[in-house]
Amino acid sequence: MLDEQDIEDRLVAIGEHQPADELSQSAVAAARRRLLDADPTPVASERSSLPWIIGAVLTAGLAALLMWVGTRFTPPRESRIADKQDDIHSIATAGPDEPGPKEPREDDPGRFLASVHGSLHGRFVFTGKVPEMVFEPVTEDAKFCAPAGVKDETLVVNRANRGLANVVVMLFLEPDEKAPSPPESFVCDTSVEMTNQLCRFEPRVCVVNTQQRLVLANGDKIGHNMRVDFFENPPVNPTIAGFDKQEYVIGAGERLPARVSCGLHPWMNGWVVVKDHPYVAVTDNNGYFEIPVAPSGRWTYQVWHEACGYVREVAQNESEPTKWNRGRFEVEIPAGGALDLGKLAVASSLFDL
After folding, report:
1. Sign of dihedral through CA atoms 25, 30, 32, 36?
2. Would you say 258 and 228 are in contact if contact means Cβ atoms under 8 Å apart?
3. What's the DSSP call for residue 183?
4. Is the pTM above the cut of 0.90?
5. Angle of the 4-13 helix axis to the 25-38 helix axis, nearest 10
6. Domain locations along the chain
7. Of 2.60.40.420, 1.10.3210.10, 2.40.10.340, 1.20.1250.20, which CATH number belongs to 117-350?
8. 304: CB partners within 8 A, 6+ apart
9. How far is CA 308 from the centre of its chain?
C-alpha cells in the first residue's frame, strides 16, 4: 500500500511535482490517479490526507500572494536607508518635548518678558550755593559719639563736583499695577544691612526688596534703638546691644521711604525704601545712580529726597527746568540697551535751607 511519502517520492521521480505555489488541486488529483492505476492497492490515508493537501496548497498560494504584494509596494533598499537616516536625524534634533512659552496678555501688568530689560542711569547735581555743614548737638554718650557734635546729613552735597547724595529714583506704579519680573539671571543679595556707626546710620538711605531680609545692626559698643516707622508693614522698634543685630522679613512694598530713628540719640535719622521689585536706586556721594536692570519700554519713575520730598523740578543737560509732577517723569528704555539721563540739575530753591 502506498502511503503519502511514497506518492511524493514517485511524483518527484516522474518529474510531475512542481513548486507548491504552482500546484493545483486537479494536477495533484491527476498524478494520484496515475499512481493508483499503476498500483491497485488503495491508499490507506487517502480520505484523511485530503484536508492536509488542500491546506498546504492554500498556504503556499497565500505566501506567493504576499511575496508579490511586498515586492510590488516595498521601496528599493536605497530609499529605505535614506528614510531611516531621516528618522534618526529628526529624533536627534527634536530635543525634549516641552511646552512652548505662553504668549503674554495685553492686560497683564507683567506683560514684558523677563529677558527684555535695559538699564537706566544719570547724575543729580546741586545748583546754587552749597550749604555749610551743620553739626548736631550731642546730648547722650557725647564722649563716645562726638564731643564736638555730629554732622547733619539731611542734605549732602559734594563740594568738588556738586553731586547730590541720597536721591531715591524708583519705578512708579499705580496701586493696582504690578512690576514686571526681573530676568532669571538677576541675582540679589539675600539680606541688606543698615548699621549704627559712630552714632549715625550707615547707609543713611537703605533699599531692600521683599525677597530680602532687613538686618538692623549695631557696630558701636554702646546700645542703640532702631525704630522703623513703616506704613504698609508693622513698625519695628528694637533696642540693639553693642555689636549685635536683628533680622526682619518685610512682607509688603512701601510707597514711601520709612523713617528710621534712635530714641536714645535723637539726632540720628535714616530711611528704609522697601519695594517688591529691584527697580530702584539711590545716588552716591557723586550724585550718580544706576538701575542696572530696568524694564524696557515706556515707564514712569519717581524721584524723592528727604530734604524736599518729591523732586518736582529738574533741568536736564543744561536745558530749561522741567516740572515733574510729584517727582514723576517718563522714559523710554531700549531693550538690551542703556538709557543715560545725563546731568540732572536740582536747584537749591527746592530745599528748605
Report:
1. positive
2. yes
3. P
4. no
5. 100
6. 4-94, 117-350
7. 2.60.40.420
8. 167, 168, 170, 256, 257, 310, 311, 327
9. 38
CB 244 within 8 A of CB 207: no
Q: In whole angstroms, what is the distance from residue 25 CA to residue 43 CA?
A: 18
CA-to-CA separations, 243 to 24, 196, 223, 291, in angstroms, rounded:
109, 9, 9, 32
* pLDDT in 10s for each residue of the chain, 353 residues: 555 555 555 555 554 444 444 444 555 555 555 545 544 444 444 445 555 556 665 666 666 666 655 555 555 544 444 444 444 333 333 333 333 334 444 444 443 444 589 999 999 999 999 988 888 888 899 889 987 778 999 999 999 999 999 999 999 999 889 999 998 888 888 999 999 999 999 999 999 999 999 999 999 999 999 999 999 999 999 999 999 999 999 999 999 999 999 999 999 999 999 999 999 999 999 999 999 999 999 999 999 999 999 999 999 999 999 999 999 999 999 999 999 999 999 999 999 76
Instruction: Give me the DSSP letters along 97-137.
Output: --PPPPPPPTT-TT-S-TT-EEEEEEEEEEESPPPPPPEE-
